[in-house]
Specification:
Blueprint (H helix, E strand, L loop, with lengths): L4 H11 L5 E11 L12 E6 L13 E3 L2 E2 L16 E2 L2 E4 L11 E3 L2 E2 L6 E4 L2 E4 L4 E2 L4 E3 L11 E2 L8 E9 L19 E7 L4 E7 L1 H10 L19 E14 L5 E5 L3 E3 L6 E10 L5 H8 L14 E4 L6 E2 L2 E3 L10 E2 L5 E7 L2 E6 L5 E3 L2 E3 L3 E5 L6 E4 L27 E2 L15 E7 L4 E9 L4 H4 L5 H17 L34 E10 L2 H4 L1
């Protein structure tokens, strides 16, 4: 008697291993640092390595930062409960990035109370133009650098170079007793982004104080507790936060579980080691703020160089750790197994101001200035929930099907343009720009349309709860900066190791004739370039 064909198919299917299950790798790489005296509460700066973490962009589920930090307000005594606000951002990739590439971008990452408002750059943040919850939170300051609507681009191909960045308060604004007509105060902190790159140096833009204080209009209990009026907590966490790297897992015939992770790489220098962070520095107000304030009040001009006398160079402590794990989406934090990070990566500090890793060459591969981490892992005993230990590709049973997997860039629909309001009665058109439109073709394949606005008339300033007199007072201060602070000299202390990363050259601008002082470039649209334009 012949076995029916459908039954044969079912029996054969039962004998074959199941297709690999899609999972993900995520977690934090932890960096140990010494404590900083509480008096250094006027911002920070760091140098962070920039590189292509994955050799193929894996689609818009991909979200990970490179090494960075979270700057929270400073409180005396117990911190307020259920009140989160900070500046995070940094280098990385985000799910809402419209025009991604393997090269990371930079965002500012200002977080209002409990993530209700988010500002990532000029005209880039949370909400819609009908309900802007951070879209107007950042004012452009420099006339020499364009900040795209999709985040600040680095030059394509960056591989381990260091981007210097940080936030220090500058005395542009005056504290106020009322906010948006309500009896809640707004502080005068204008937390200003400073960059040190190969082709641009200096202040770029700042969070308007109203970005933070507007939360107190909704809930007066928040008044005085946010970054508009508080100094910065100098004792921050330094980590690399990875939210998603594609991976897959499968069982062999014995029931053992193996996993494969998309090729994940770190940069290496000529000596074979990796530097990820350098010169973590905290500041007090004598480092920059006091001198600039005296200048604005009629004193001698401030050079803009951050004074070493008001700076605290933070040292790295020994060791460091990882919470990286491989798991199916939706796994609870307490159930995630560990990944044996230190089996192939050893924390390394070549000097007290520099942090990175040494690698086990028996488990990693090197090519093109990158070290690629182990791709294959076997699940076994270890830790509270088990542990993923790296194995050679040859030791993974063929029946798992993991060797045949490909982690290619997925085909996705073209992303829509990022646009600002077009109406004639909006802050974008009234009083409106002084010159434009201009366009910049970027390395990520997008085109940015931008205009030149008088600083005080840019949309962010018109939406910062400022009177015309207050805006004009800030205009006068910014004009002083434009005349005296150029883009080609040091503001942050330069690095003592490695090389500086370059920003996308198309973003470094020369103002039009007659608009060199008091005017700034503002992006109004960003869209994919036509195929012919990309060449």
């Amino acid at each position: 008697m012949r076995t029916p064909a459908p039954l044969v198919a079912c029996l054969l299917a039962a004998m074959l291993p199941a297709a690999p299950e899609k999972v993900e790798m995520a977690g934090y790489l932890l960096v140990p640092t010494e404590r900083v005296p509480e008096s250094y509460n006027a911002g920070f700066s760091i140098y962070a390595a920039a590189w292509p973490l994955l050799n193929q962009y894996p689609g818009h589920r991909f979200q990970t930062g490179l090494f960075g930090t979270w700057m929270h307000p400073q409180y005396q005594g117990e911190k307020p409960k259920d009140l989160y606000n900070d500046i995070e951002g940094g280098l990385g990739w985000w799910r809402d990035t419209r025009f991604p590439s393997e090269t990371p971008k930079f965002i500012m990452g200002g977080v209002g109370v409990n993530f209700y408002d988010i500002a990532n750059g000029p005209a880039y943040g949370r909400g819609s133009w009908e309900d802007p919850r951070g879209l107007y939170g950042v004012a452009q300051l420099t006339p020499w650098l364009l900040f795209p609507l999709d985040g600040l681009n680095l030059k394509q191909g960056v591989n381990g170079e260091l981007l210097g960045y940080g936030y220090l308060p500058l005395p542009f604004a005056q504290a106020k007793t009322k906010t948006e007509g309500k009896d809640v105060p707004t502080g005068d902190n204008c937390w200003t982004l400073f960059l040190n790159a190969a082709n641009f140096k200096g202040p770029v833009c700042f969070f308007t104080p109203n970005f933070w204080s507007r939360a107190a209009v909704r809930n007066p209990a928040y008044a005085g507790l946010m970054l508009d009026s508080r100094g910065s907590d100098p004792n921050k966490h330094f980590q690399m936060e990875t939210q998603y790297v594609p991976a897959a897992q499968a069982k062999d015939a014995k029931g053992d579980t193996y996993a494969r992770v998309a090729p994940t790489s770190f940069p290496v220098g000529p000596d074979g080691t990796t530097v990820v962070l350098h010169r973590l520095t905290c500041y007090d107000r004598s480092a920059l703020y006091d001198g600039v304030k005296a200048w604005f009040e009629g004193g001698p001009a401030a050079s803009g160089a951050v004074r070493s006398e008001g700076s605290f160079l933070q040292k790295f402590r020994a060791n460091g750790g990882s919470t990286w794990s491989i798991y199916p989406q939706g796994t609870k934090r307490e159930a995630k197994p560990g990944l044996a990070w230190k089996s192939f990566a050893t924390p390394y500090a070549p000097d007290p101001a520099t942090y990175g890793y040494k690698w086990d060459d028996a488990l990693v591969t090197r090519a093109g200035g990158l070290v690629t981490l182990p791709q294959y892992y076997r699940f076994g005993a270890g830790g509270k929930n088990g542990q993923w230990t790296p194995v050679k590709a040859a030791d993974v049973p063929a029946a798992t099907g993991l060797a045949e997997l490909r982690f290619d860039r997925p085909k996705e629909k073209p992303q829509e343009a990022r646009e600002t309001p077009a109406g004639a009665q909006t802050a974008w058109k009234t009083p409106g720009p002084k010159a434009g439109p201009f366009q910049a073709l970027l390395g990520d394949g997008s085109i940015v349309t931008y205009y030149w606005y008088r600083f005080a008339d840019q949309p962010a300033m018109l939406n910062a709860d400022l009177t015309p007199a207050e805006r004009e007072a800030m205009q006068a201060k910014v004009e002083k900066l434009h005349r005296a602070w150029t883009k080609d000299r040091d503001y942050l202390a330069p690095p003592t190791v490695g090389k500086l990363a370059a920003l996308d050259p198309a973003l470094v601008l020369t103002p039009p004739k007659g608009l060199e002082v008091g005017y700034v470039p503002i992006a109004t649209r960003q869209e994919l370039a036509a195929p012919a334009a990309k060449k």
